[in-house]
Amino acid sequence: MSYTPESQVEVLVIGAGPAGLFLSSALVRAGIRVRVVDKKDTRVTTGHADGLHPRTIEILQSYGLADRFLSKAAQIHTMAYYNPGPDGGIERTEFGPFVRAPTARYPFAATLPQSDIEGLFRDEMAKYGAQVEQPVVPVALEISQDENELQSSTSYPVKVTLKRLNSNEGAELVAPRDNNTEIVRAKYVVGADGAHSWVRKTLEIDMIGESMNSIWGVVDFAPETDLPDIRIYCTIHSIHGSCAIIPREGDLIRLYVQLADVEADQNGRFDKSKLGPDDIIKASHSRAQKMLHPYKLSYTKPIDWWTVYIIGQRVASAFSAKNRVFIAGDACHTHSPKAGQGMNASMSDSHNLAWKLASVLRQWAPPSLLTTYDLERRQYAQELIDFDRILAKLFVTKPMTEGNEGVTHEEFAQMRTKFTGFMSGIGIEYQPSTITNVSGSSLATKLIIGQRILPGVILQAANARPYELHDLLPSDMRFKILILSADITNPRQKAKLDALATRLHQPAGLLRRFTPLGAPKDAIFDIITIARVDKELVKVSMYPSQLLSHWSKAYTDDRSICGRVGGSFYANYGVSDDGAIIVCRPDGYVGMVAALDDLAAVEGYFDKFLRPCSKVTPVSGLVASQEKILGRL
Amino acid sequence: MSYTPESQVEVLVIGAGPAGLFLSSALVRAGIRVRVVDKKDTRVTTGHADGLHPRTIEILQSYGLADRFLSKAAQIHTMAYYNPGPDGGIERTEFGPFVRAPTARYPFAATLPQSDIEGLFRDEMAKYGAQVEQPVVPVALEISQDENELQSSTSYPVKVTLKRLNSNEGAELVAPRDNNTEIVRAKYVVGADGAHSWVRKTLEIDMIGESMNSIWGVVDFAPETDLPDIRIYCTIHSIHGSCAIIPREGDLIRLYVQLADVEADQNGRFDKSKLGPDDIIKASHSRAQKMLHPYKLSYTKPIDWWTVYIIGQRVASAFSAKNRVFIAGDACHTHSPKAGQGMNASMSDSHNLAWKLASVLRQWAPPSLLTTYDLERRQYAQELIDFDRILAKLFVTKPMTEGNEGVTHEEFAQMRTKFTGFMSGIGIEYQPSTITNVSGSSLATKLIIGQRILPGVILQAANARPYELHDLLPSDMRFKILILSADITNPRQKAKLDALATRLHQPAGLLRRFTPLGAPKDAIFDIITIARVDKELVKVSMYPSQLLSHWSKAYTDDRSICGRVGGSFYANYGVSDDGAIIVCRPDGYVGMVAALDDLAAVEGYFDKFLRPCSKVTPVSGLVASQEKILGRL
């Protein structure tokens, strides 16, 4: 009888694409014990997913990864529309910004091969001694039916059987053995295993959506062309069909062509073996060369990567099973490449899930917090699919030309304008829930509760050094409490701030209520006070010392000393002379806004989804790991 | 008879402080064979030199090192003056920017321990497989007297005997042997071996200057104080004497106190053993605690680092011997810490020397180019010493109080304003010479020939992506030729640009005249064309293809598509509708400006100090290493 090893892990991640790697690296950083498995032999090396949108770059920044990403990525600032001209060839009808979100910190999209983006997360994991186990596949998954076990914070109720494959490359590393399976008992399992997700199928979660499948050709290559806009994002509507051009790193571009004349059978299958990159590029009906006329398009260097695939717009009917197994990324949503959201949506799923898993595993929050993952990300996915459906329809429909009905350029452009916040990711808005309380929205009129917090420059009170607020809000799993005290040289504001500071530290106050005994005072809540006092007058001693875990936590809203930045933080947030308290969730989204003298509202907000610390089961190591993480950040 | 090993190296650097390490890493990057030795056992770990000024940060940026530096450094944006108030204690009399150079890309100074800064260069060297040999001291240095050997580009005319010491730490690594000396024959030797430079003494170079020595106490510690400006740069003039406060990383500050009551003997020596950190901080006549009254100053955490030293203002009478041995850094100039220039001056010496050595070693230029190192850097050092002398005198002189003659606050502030460009490094200006031709200054009225080139935002023509020009001018040892063609939709300008492109590539034209046969066309000259055409109209095809080594080399001056940056490049440079040609030296300084139709002037400029390629002795490996470097940048 062969022996099957068994082990325990807090989180088992299945799939090491962008969604799985993002989640794993975020959790590993937070001190969570994670294992990641992937069925592939090796990392992907070229091609695959698209670029990152402004919000996704902001998210990378919050993990300290944006600089490395940006140092290698191509930037897309500009886009053009081409439409049929009077002579039948295309002509440029519009030229403008690719990103129209005025508050985007990074006002552009950026492309980098998926392998490089995955490398960011693999390297980040490696810093903490973690790596992907591959090729390993799950062969069985079972969730306990015992309700007590499901509700317990110390149980490992998900049983997964993993099988290690013999890879060609790794063959010599894996000793051949009869029994290459093992059993992993996990607190949580996340299926980030792609559009054909094994986890999703095993959980019997349906994909819901229209069956309108479209077949797309994608090719990455170094073009030879006289199209002047070849280095910007182009949407091309020709009388021969439509395509999109996306600049990539170096001399590469990506070309997306919908192969309208390739048909799938009733089962949504088509014969990929009959197609090649030249079926995407070269002249024939509905191919890129024809669409670009009168501009030339060819290539001499080898094709970097290409694929042809069929896609429908569908969303999973549920993103979790019993709040113990979750799916993320392409496992949850499939859509056309037209919206260019694929990798962004996947990584944002993981960003949303990471802090919730960490909060529950650390026992800061009861498991019910995890329900908001399905709520927030399934809503988003549905919006994404609806958006993609409209966009894809417009894209396929022939453009209106003289004597030819169709979509006008204006219709198309209007549609894009409408969805611009959505496309950049900046405008993604989570609906009201236990973690998104919109009742105080009038207190910060230009901040949208449920959206990511606005960037803005403030000055450190001690030294007038300007800081971008986003740089002070790292994804370290903590809630950020921004106390906008306004003018504390005004006795009325100072009194409110002093009262707040006192209440915060009372035995039943916010800090002691939720922060585990023995943990540092700022383990869960990072308090940042932003006054509005002239930089020349402001002193750290004006801020109640109970609010300052360190002198660096005191800020003011004023113009920087060299006059280049700052001075409009309150105005940009729409916060009055009365000030406000803004709660920023660990993922950088605004959770709630309260009046400066209404800490009770903040306490009430956290009461809904955090666990009073008296109910926490002591777990050794968590506090220490949190300390370690904070030290590293 | 013991055997003494002999070897050859292109450059031997003696001393691995900031000057030596900067030079070594710059040369190693450029593919030059370099050895670096230092007498110290180990790296310094705390304390030592001051922060970096704006220009020095720009220089680091040109080597790709600024991001890493800035991610760790403390920033100083603000400064305050304190002067005696009516009750005898100090009071703040001014608060303002620490950096007053409006064109500084980084409008602040930044502090980091010297060990971390040295670490930047050591890590950079390690990337190329180079490291410091220590503890190793030179014991003999001999320059050939043979004029032919001195003029030859293939000779190794400097003979240095090195002796490896047994270190405590490295003892087990060095096999004890009778003969631990070796002979190195070098093409060039650089003494970056500090204020007591062995190289300088061996060359019998005098230090020239007044004998006014001053004794300074310096201490790095975490202060406990109620001085509100403790986190900004403070100059404190009290009736008890003067001191300066410099914020450092974390909770540390640096305190500089001139110990006016400690006296040196006739030989400029004093008994350091009788002094300690409390002699700098604690209350007694002319100590910091007394100077800060009515503010408190104390400490509880251990002192991080301290020293007491004596310094005079002196400059070496020559910076080189026979253009084969050079001195750099503190070996060339000593001055008080008051100007805060130490490490900045040292690194700038090396930055100035690096490209000249590389150009001569690659045979792009004859050895006479090296004469400009002494010319430019000794002039600078003299200005630095003059500045320091004035500053130090003001600093020591008691401030004027009621009924007490002295320096007024206004006098002091005026002096600072006068020298602000010098202090930030932004205004450092090299005098006219073979490499600095000021005759075309009217063609770019806001650019100062001899100063570092102004930063400015331009858009890449192919995609309207905004770039900071400085990011396009890496310290890769190449000359950057900026062709400001102005509006090339104007036939007059287009004709001038076309003519320039044709002339550039003619057999006797600039490129073929100086670029070695077989080397890539852009080996010596990196050509960047900056038009002034609306981003919506501009096309890469408007630029003569001979000017573009790659499509990324075509730029235009216009506002970025998101409207946040750009659009004032020509205006900020003071270049008219006629355009201009700007030659930027490899170190980022403006070498000359010519009219767009006067390439002859550019040819004439380079004729003065570059070697026509027909005269180059073929040396294998140089072209390949250059290619490698360009590929890496």
UniProtKB/TrEMBL annotation, chains A, B:
The FAD-binding domain, residue ranges: 9-387
InterPro entries in the cross-refs: FAD-bd, FAD/NAD-bd_sf, Phe_hydrox_C_dim_dom, PHOX_C_sf, RIFMO-like, Thioredoxin-like_sf
The species this protein was found in: Botryobasidium botryosum (strain FD-172 SS1)
Keyword Oxidoreductase: yes
Alphabetical list of Pfam families matching this protein: FAD_binding_3, Phe_hydrox_dim
GO MF term (any one): oxidoreductase activity, acting on paired donors, with incorporation or reduction of molecular oxygen, NAD(P)H as one donor, and incorporation of one atom of oxygen
Family, per entry: Belongs to the PheA/TfdB FAD monooxygenase family.
Name used for this protein in its record: FAD-binding domain-containing protein
